[in-house]
Amino acid sequence: QVQLVESGGGLVQAGGSLRLSCEASRIIFAIYGMGWYRQAPGKQRELVASITLLGGSVTNYADSVKGRFTIARDNARNMVFLQMNNLNPEDTGVYYCNTYPPQPYWGQGTQVTVSS
Fold this sequence. Notes:
- By secondary structure, this protein is mainly β.
- It is built from 1 helix and 10 strands.
- The protein has one helix at 26-29; strands at 4-7, 10-13, 18-24, 33-39, 46-51, 59-61, 69-74, 79-84, 93-100, 110-115.
- The strands form 2 sheets. Strands 2-10-9-4-5-6 form a 6-stranded mixed β-sheet, with no helix packed on it. A 4-stranded antiparallel β-sheet has the order 1-3-8-7.
- A hairpin with a 6-residue loop joins β4 and β5.
- The longest helix has 4 residues, at 26-29.
- The chain is globular, with a radius of gyration of 13 Å.
């Protein structure tokens, strides 16, 4: 059974930081790379960051978050994290974790709101 549980969102002022956490089912965490996605109000869901399973956990980031966000995974705990620094209002949205590329099931996500 696929399970994705995101947490750590909240309301923060511009320039602040948040750390998102995601616990994933072992069945997918042990096989796939993982990603963080976000959906801003009125926009399509987009990939924010990804990390491979093998090959030294290679990471990739959307241009809009490079230098501010860091993705990491803890294979022993089936968890993936997103450290978000220097947040700005354009980062507001619901953040989801999923495999990369994404599989069809999505969790509930966690809301991130950045006030100016």
